[in-house]
Specification:
The protein contains 10 helices and 11 strands. By secondary structure, it is an alpha+beta fold. The chain has 2 domains: about 35 residues; about 240 residues, no CATH class. The strands form 3 sheets. Strands 10-6-7-8-9-11 form a 6-stranded antiparallel beta sheet, with helices on both faces. A 3-stranded antiparallel beta sheet has the order 1-2-5, with helices on one face. The protein is globular. It starts with a helix and ends in a 6-residue tail after the last helix.
Length: about 290
């Protein structure tokens, strides 16, 4: 006891650090044991959980987010309902939004291209409450619910390149038609399951990237945590094509194009975006 009492004054910072650590552990334990819920006061963009209806030939999803942005401001909070046929699925595009100040952190998303230059996007998010900020550290301890948000390409891309002023990279995904359909179906089924069985977001095991990887049937890789390198990982696997990763990365930078396209009529966004992506990647117009 005498030795213990003498230790504290000799090491004044250690008790404080120990107390802070204990508080974090106790607080984290409370989050971990708290069941996920669907009835919180959600941040508006994450408030509407989509409803998915699947058939053998296609699907409907609603609401599909189609918000509009001008600079840092939201100028319209629009939602639509969309119906698609699986036979009209043409390509899959991988989007990467690097987080400013970090080469290891990024948000990843997918775009599904359908016949007639129609695009449907998916972002997998930590479902934050009103006034709540995202924290990767808190995300380790199940502080957030998980949500799948289906949205227009215009919403997903301009939200990042225009509203947040972040870089946006868009890569073509080199997988077969059967693999594309299987990936889309898996993600729709996972969306559907969240309607009745909420889950926690987790920075390590259920984040935006490894949720996509699990749906694709990939084995675990470090890039699923260090998500800023997920495009490089996909290139090494041959899923992103190119003579070199640097070449593929450079041509995928769509930031300035998207910022300029934001002022065009919404009805032409998908076709204009796809025309530019095909030009950059040497992809012919599908028949």
């Amino acid at each position: 006891m005498k030795r213990l009492l003498s230790w504290f004054p000799a090491n004044p910072l250690r008790p404080a650090v120990a107390c802070i650590f204990a508080i974090l552990v106790l607080g984290s334990a409370a989050s971990i044991t708290q069941p996920p819920r669907t009835d919180r006061d959600w941040y508006p963009y994450l408030a509407h959980a989509p409803d998915v209806t699947l058939t053998e030939t296609g699907f409907t999803v609603a609401p599909v987010s189609d918000w509009s942005y001008l600079g840092p401001d939201v100028i319209a909070e629009t939602y639509i309902e969309a119906a698609y046929d699986f036979d009209q699925l043409r390509n899959v595009w991988f989007m990467l939004e690097p987080q400013p100040g970090s080469q290891l952190a990024a948000h990843t998303l997918l775009l599904f291209e359908f016949e007639g230059d129609r695009l449907l996007g998916l972002t997998i998010e930590a479902r934050r409450e009103q006034g709540e900020d995202y924290s990767a550290l808190r995300g380790i301890f199940n502080a957030f619910e998980l949500t799948y948000i289906w949205a227009s390409a215009r919403d997903l891309l301009t939200r990042r390149a225009v509203m947040l002023d972040h870089e946006v990279f868009v890569y073509p995904v080199a997988i077969t038609n059967a693999q594309s359909r299987q990936l889309l179906t898996q993600l729709l089924e996972r969306t559907e399951s969240l309607e009745t069985t909420p889950r926690h977001y987790n920075t390590i095991v259920s984040n935006c990237t490894n949720e996509l990887a699990k749906a694709a049937g990939f084995n675990w890789a470090p890039a699923y945590i260090f998500t800023g390198r997920s495009d490089e990982y996909l290139f090494r696997r041959g899923i992103i094509a190119g003579a070199s990763f640097n070449q593929a990365h450079a041509r995928s930078d769509m930031t300035e194009f998207i910022q300029a396209l934001n002022v065009a009529p919404a009805a032409v966004f998908d076709s204009a975006l796809l025309a530019e992506l095909r030009r950059r990647n040497g992809i012919s117009v599908p028949l």
